[in-house]
Amino acid sequence: MSQLFRMTPESYKRLVKDAQSDPERFWLRESERLEWSASPSRAADKGAGWFEDGRLNASVNCIDRHLHTRGDQAAIIWQGEDEDNVVTLTYRDLYDRVCSLANVLRDHGVRKGDRVAIHLPAVADGVVAMLACARIGALHIVLFGGFSAEAIADRLADSGAVAVITANVGRRGAKRIPFKTTMDAAIKLRGAASAVRHVFVVSVTEDKVPLQEGRDALLAPLMDEAPSDSPPELMKSADPLFLLYTSGSTGKPKGIVHSTGGYLTWASFTHELIFDHKPGDVFWCTADIGWITGHTYVAYGPLANGSTLLMFEGMPSHPAPGRWWDVIRKHRVTTFYTSPTAIRALMAEGDEIPARYDLSSLRVLGSVGEPINHEAWTWFHDVIGGGRCPVVDTWWQTETGGAMISLVPGAVAPRPASATLPLPGVNLLLLDEKGQKLDGSAEGILCIDGSWPGRALTIWNDDALFRKTYLDPYPGHYFTGDGARRDEDGYFWITGRVDDVINVSGHRIGSAEIEDALSEIHDISESAAVGIPHDIKGQGLIVYVVPHAGLSEAQIVSVREQAVKVISARIGRYAVPEQIYVVSDLPKTRSGKNVRRLMRKIACGDKEGFGDLSTLANPGIVEELITAVAAACG
Ligand code: WTA
Prior knowledge:
alpha/beta; GMP Synthetase, Chain A, domain 3; 8-stranded mixed beta sheet; 32% helix; 22% strand; globular; binds 5'-O-[(S)-ethoxy(hydroxy)phosphoryl]adenosine
């Protein structure tokens, strides 16, 4: 097996040992994978970020430096929902587009350090826009396509974005998703307080949308007129490359800030290692660019390594089951990286669907975003990979910048449903609730010892919150918010979040975010959101709401509708709960804290085994919750 892959068990062991024995030398050597205008003389983060005195530009690393060797190679193959709609951008084309857009942005006064929001469907322009921002040293904020206008408005306001790149519409089968109208509504919500001066519109279809004089412009004509060369801005290694909002335990989404040199080193290092990157690969990561996976493994990692990436506009099973497998067949995809939710949904369609397609181009399969169960892992490995492709289950987070735990093809023996071992240079710890280190085979809170180049710099506008969330809970270590089990061989099995973050289909949703949104409803006095196991989505979102006393039956029915409406409007449709239970109170401790553990168990359908209920302030409520759940489940 080992000759097939770039790593062997021996070379991998050497890598682990080198990283362990002299991290400074190891990371400095790894930084050489990038092209620096000024090479760093130091690696480790001593307070001023990784590779402190290095200077570079991320777009140069993803494009310019490949032009001599692979200018005519496809950088991006974009497959539209329509079979015949395929766009291939070579590295030379990518250079032209990125430079043109960089010039448009500069012409409109966007400068180094400014923030630019990107809200686009799955078109290649998304990657072009990210790189154009990187070229001029502007920070991009990619917003998930499914966000509501209010969710966008919050993020525009927090980041102070001065320009926005959006689309007229997105395509979803016969449906049109109103990107521009949503953006207009988002900007309007803040009125004069909005910092957005320019809205650039990508024309995905021929559909016309209103353009506001002086603020909005169609992007294509501007890019056609702009010169296709644009000098890159020289950035310090620790200058921010982008902000990306993610959910945590607080109601407000956090703008996670990533650096230029450290992040890009991590993206390139991990992409090469875990996907066994080789020239000629066609790399397909199905993530939306609005999530971190879309940053690191749609854009930065593969492009920094000179790979060919595939982007697909459509859905897995549209117009018919098997569409994704057909894309793999058609474009000879070698590396396919997706989520457990997608794998489980595709598995449910039956083995005969993928069996119709030639999937022999595949070499490596990957999974990310949530724990993958044994059955889904095995199906992916056996049915999609034909038993010959390693499955890399990659554990990581928005905050870590790139994968931290993963199988390395050729070097690490698989164990279905285990993310396997920490990558070289990653030092993991398991702690008990008191912060005591657990040794050997154990289950506990997953923390990371020391730093690594991909670690987020901070939270935008709130460094104190960054420290409080990640660094203070277990001093000296980075707190992940996840629990994990380590077996006798040092393999890791992620057990899920230990904080109040719910992971629905790999989308992070903070329970506080949902509860905050619901607090807007006058008829509700309080609410609690919890996650429970879900066969396809990994976790399903369940909400308990307590209406004010004395409401009529009709008003209570309307509470449910209002809840759905408010969550869709404040966050987005993707955060609408599976079930909303209307109850007269929530189980509380005597000090008034909601007992989520109990609410989760009850929502799972448990009727007993709750332990000692006498510590509750209102033990009588348990029966009512059980009845509400039983009634809904028929
Ligand atoms: C979860 C996505 C188990 C985890 C890259 C983490 C996983 C959160 C895995 C981060 C995995 C991600 N196995 N759980 N392979 N990958 N997670 O920030 O709970 O969107 O904390 O980053 O997803 O989600 P985020």
